[in-house]
UniProtKB/TrEMBL annotation:
<comment type="function">
    <text>Accessory subunit of the mitochondrial membrane respiratory chain NADH dehydrogenase (Complex I), that is believed not to be involved in catalysis. Complex I functions in the transfer of electrons from NADH to the respiratory chain. The immediate electron acceptor for the enzyme is believed to be ubiquinone.</text>
</comment>
<protein>
    <recommendedName>
        <fullName>NADH dehydrogenase [ubiquinone] iron-sulfur protein 5</fullName>
    </recommendedName>
</protein>
<keyword id="KW-0999">Mitochondrion inner membrane</keyword>
<dbReference type="InterPro" id="IPR019342">
    <property type="entry name" value="NADH_UbQ_OxRdtase_FeS-su5"/>
</dbReference>
<comment type="similarity">
    <text>Belongs to the complex I NDUFS5 subunit family.</text>
</comment>
<dbReference type="GO" id="GO:0032981">
    <property type="term" value="P:mitochondrial respiratory chain complex I assembly"/>
</dbReference>
<dbReference type="Pfam" id="PF10200">
    <property type="entry name" value="Ndufs5"/>
</dbReference>
<dbReference type="GO" id="GO:0005758">
    <property type="term" value="C:mitochondrial intermembrane space"/>
</dbReference>
<dbReference type="GO" id="GO:0005743">
    <property type="term" value="C:mitochondrial inner membrane"/>
</dbReference>
<keyword id="KW-1015">Disulfide bond</keyword>
<keyword id="KW-0249">Electron transport</keyword>
<comment type="subunit">
    <text>Mammalian complex I is composed of 45 different subunits. This is a component of the iron-sulfur (IP) fragment of the enzyme.</text>
</comment>
<keyword id="KW-0472">Membrane</keyword>
<keyword id="KW-0679">Respiratory chain</keyword>
<keyword id="KW-0813">Transport</keyword>
<keyword id="KW-0496">Mitochondrion</keyword>
Length: 106
Protein backbone atom coordinates (compact mmCIF):
# COMPACT_ATOMS: atom_id res chain seq x y z
CA UNK A 1 0.00 0.00 0.00
CA UNK A 2 1.51 3.32 -0.99
CA UNK A 3 2.17 5.99 1.59
CA UNK A 4 -0.12 8.44 -0.22
CA UNK A 5 -3.22 6.92 -1.72
CA UNK A 6 -3.49 9.34 -4.63
CA UNK A 7 -6.30 7.48 -6.38
CA UNK A 8 -8.55 7.76 -3.34
CA UNK A 9 -7.54 11.37 -2.65
CA UNK A 10 -8.25 12.43 -6.25
CA UNK A 11 -11.43 10.39 -6.44
CA UNK A 12 -10.36 8.34 -9.46
CA UNK A 13 -10.04 4.63 -9.95
CA UNK A 14 -7.29 4.02 -12.50
CA UNK A 15 -7.43 0.26 -12.00
CA UNK A 16 -11.04 0.11 -13.16
CA UNK A 17 -10.28 2.49 -16.01
CA UNK A 18 -7.37 0.39 -17.29
CA UNK A 19 -9.34 -2.85 -17.39
CA UNK A 20 -11.68 -3.29 -20.35
CA UNK A 21 -14.47 -5.24 -18.71
CA UNK A 22 -14.44 -3.38 -15.40
CA UNK A 23 -15.47 -0.06 -16.88
CA UNK A 24 -19.02 1.15 -16.54
CA UNK A 25 -21.36 -1.10 -18.51
CA UNK A 26 -24.91 -0.43 -19.70
CA UNK A 27 -27.60 -1.18 -17.12
CA UNK A 28 -24.93 -1.72 -14.46
CA UNK A 29 -24.29 -5.35 -15.49
CA UNK A 30 -20.78 -6.80 -15.59
CA UNK A 31 -19.14 -7.19 -18.99
CA UNK A 32 -19.39 -10.54 -20.74
CA UNK A 33 -15.70 -11.34 -20.25
CA UNK A 34 -15.28 -9.66 -16.88
CA UNK A 35 -14.65 -12.95 -15.02
CA UNK A 36 -11.93 -14.03 -17.46
CA UNK A 37 -10.20 -10.65 -17.27
CA UNK A 38 -10.37 -10.69 -13.49
CA UNK A 39 -8.79 -14.18 -13.33
CA UNK A 40 -5.99 -13.03 -15.63
CA UNK A 41 -5.31 -9.89 -13.60
CA UNK A 42 -5.41 -11.77 -10.29
CA UNK A 43 -3.04 -14.41 -11.66
CA UNK A 44 -0.46 -11.84 -12.76
CA UNK A 45 -0.77 -9.56 -9.74
CA UNK A 46 2.62 -9.15 -8.09
CA UNK A 47 4.49 -11.56 -10.39
CA UNK A 48 6.15 -9.14 -12.75
CA UNK A 49 5.64 -8.92 -16.49
CA UNK A 50 8.03 -11.67 -17.63
CA UNK A 51 6.93 -14.26 -15.10
CA UNK A 52 3.24 -13.37 -15.48
CA UNK A 53 3.39 -13.88 -19.25
CA UNK A 54 4.74 -17.38 -18.73
CA UNK A 55 2.62 -18.47 -15.77
CA UNK A 56 -0.68 -16.79 -16.69
CA UNK A 57 -0.79 -17.80 -20.35
CA UNK A 58 -3.91 -20.05 -19.97
CA UNK A 59 -5.86 -17.25 -18.27
CA UNK A 60 -4.80 -14.76 -20.94
CA UNK A 61 -5.82 -17.15 -23.73
CA UNK A 62 -9.23 -17.68 -22.11
CA UNK A 63 -9.71 -13.92 -21.86
CA UNK A 64 -8.70 -13.31 -25.49
CA UNK A 65 -10.98 -16.13 -26.68
CA UNK A 66 -13.87 -14.59 -24.79
CA UNK A 67 -13.14 -11.18 -26.32
CA UNK A 68 -12.47 -12.20 -29.94
CA UNK A 69 -14.03 -15.68 -30.33
CA UNK A 70 -11.27 -16.83 -32.70
CA UNK A 71 -11.40 -20.51 -31.69
CA UNK A 72 -15.20 -20.49 -32.00
CA UNK A 73 -15.00 -18.97 -35.49
CA UNK A 74 -12.41 -21.55 -36.57
CA UNK A 75 -14.58 -24.37 -35.22
CA UNK A 76 -17.67 -23.08 -37.02
CA UNK A 77 -15.69 -22.74 -40.26
CA UNK A 78 -14.53 -26.36 -39.93
CA UNK A 79 -18.10 -27.53 -39.35
CA UNK A 80 -19.42 -25.60 -42.36
CA UNK A 81 -16.58 -26.88 -44.57
CA UNK A 82 -17.38 -30.45 -43.52
CA UNK A 83 -21.08 -29.87 -44.26
CA UNK A 84 -20.29 -28.47 -47.70
CA UNK A 85 -18.00 -31.43 -48.42
CA UNK A 86 -20.74 -33.89 -47.43
CA UNK A 87 -23.31 -32.07 -49.59
CA UNK A 88 -20.90 -32.18 -52.53
CA UNK A 89 -20.35 -35.94 -52.05
CA UNK A 90 -24.11 -36.51 -51.76
CA UNK A 91 -23.93 -37.91 -48.22
CA UNK A 92 -26.02 -35.13 -46.68
CA UNK A 93 -29.08 -33.24 -47.84
CA UNK A 94 -29.95 -30.20 -45.76
CA UNK A 95 -33.60 -29.70 -44.82
CA UNK A 96 -35.69 -27.26 -46.86
CA UNK A 97 -35.63 -24.60 -44.17
CA UNK A 98 -31.81 -24.55 -44.38
CA UNK A 99 -31.97 -24.01 -48.14
CA UNK A 100 -33.91 -20.77 -47.81
CA UNK A 101 -37.23 -22.30 -48.79
CA UNK A 102 -40.06 -21.28 -46.55
CA UNK A 103 -42.90 -23.52 -45.45
CA UNK A 104 -46.22 -22.67 -47.11
CA UNK A 105 -48.26 -20.46 -44.87
CA UNK A 106 -51.92 -21.11 -44.19
Amino acid sequence: MPFWDLQRQLGIDVDRWLLRQSTAQPNGNAGACHAFEREWVECGHGLGQTRARRECQPEYEDFMECMHRTKLAARLKTILDQRDKMIKEGKYTPPDYHKGKEDPRP
